[in-house]
Amino acid sequence: MENKQNKINNLLKMGFILVSILFAMPSILYLIQKGTTYQFGPYFHFLYEAPVSRATQTILYIILLLSLSMAYFAIVKRRKNVFKSTKNMFLFIGIVAFIFIAVLPFTCSDVFYYLGIGRLDSTYHQNPYYTTIKEFVEQGDNSQYLQTDTVLAQGYHNDWADSTVVYGPIWTLICRIVAGLSFGNLDFALLLFKLVNVMIHLGNCYLIYKISHKKIFVLLYGLNPFILIEGIASVHNDMFVAFFLLGSLYCLTKKKNLVLSITFLSLATAIKYFAILLLPFIIMYHFRQEEKPRKRLGRCIQYGLLFLAILAIPYLFYVRDAQVLSGLLIQQEKLAKSFYIILTEYFKEPTFAPSTVNHVLLGAFTIIYFFTCLTLLNKKSIKLREEMKKANYFVMAFLFLLITNFQPWYVIWLFPLLIWQKAENIRWIPQIALISEFANSIFLTYGEGWQNGTPFTFVLIVGAFGTWIINEQTKKIKLQKMRRKQFWQD
Predict the structure, then answer these.
(1) Which residues contact 62 (CB under 8 A, 6 or more apart)?
(2) How many angstroms separate the CA atoms of 279 and 388, rounded?
(3) What is the pTM of this model?
(4) In angstroms, rounded to a whole number, what is the distance separating the alpha carbons of residues 124 and 106?
(5) Cβ pair 419, 211 in contact under 8 A
(6) How far, in Å, CA of 450 to CA of 354, rounded?
(7) What does the pLDDT look like over 417-441, one tens digit per residue?
């Protein structure tokens, strides 16, 4: 019996690696044929340069993604037998992560923009918060650089080439370092960025384990096909946000060091500003022994100012005036892959205008968040699990209700808080991440375009609702089995 179980466990691991290799094969064949990633695109092609219809490509992609997802859930379920030691688990995660380095960013070309602005900053000494890649290239004789600098050239042909930086300065500094080390070679730059993201990925796994001491949380994040595709293959900066958030929570819970915790939270906020939502929860949990609201408020002001001071430091590298913050508004002005695009398409009345709905929801969010913090200020007993649940709900509300330009990879934000959630959310967050990846296959069939955000959103909503129903039914069945078992035992 034990030998049979070992065979099943080995088959699961071999199957996961095999499907991962199959996932990487189209990219490997493309690189063998072309010899370079320069002029790679258009993205949202799973099979490159192949005489295969987009519909067929989509079906193949869904089959591979479904196979990987099934193996993923099976490994998580049998984790205690599949991985006899923590070392073996991390080794397996590392092998899979390195396989996904070979997968080209077929679902999104943002990494080429990241590298382009990094090159603009490091090599050509332009401030990317005030000068776009297009502006730089098209002034004077600067177009000559496109002949020798494939990193800049690929960035120039990117959809975001006419936009100033839309992220915080920590991300811009990271891009500057990676692009600066590339020597203008796009292939080396992309490989270097992917290696950095793999290191961050493994760092996230390590921090999750150090905080939770449980394999399940490491595996739910580390082997999730969604994370592998969006975080490693597509090189999204949300991996770094997750790393800094986990670093903040690790310093808070294990090191009991609030200054370090706030420093890491500042670094996360200096990439994507939503991370600031966790600040009151972190400060007030650290000072949970101080029962007087006035003292807690004083601590919040004191460490809130420290947070802002640390946050301001990286901005000093780029700030000239308030325009340095204008990029933060650019994404919110766009409509894509959210229920706001459905409002635009199906509701023509001014009452349901996306901006009106967004302002109403933002107002409601602000009021609820304010009163939650006020309640926390006066709370006698503050427990981390309860507060992280609340923080997670605010991040989820921000993610799904307030962002007009929702993208699937934003779901990575939810994984750092997974450890403290109730069972339903621990199950639901990895599931919704995968549903968003399946929904994204709409673009494999129909190509990139804001109008395809409507079917994406419908698939995401229906998939999430269907998953919730299945989870509820599963919970009821388990409860009934437990009651029957107890009945016969009594």
Answers:
(1) 438, 441
(2) 11
(3) 0.95
(4) 28
(5) yes
(6) 15
(7) 999 998 888 989 999 999 999 999 9
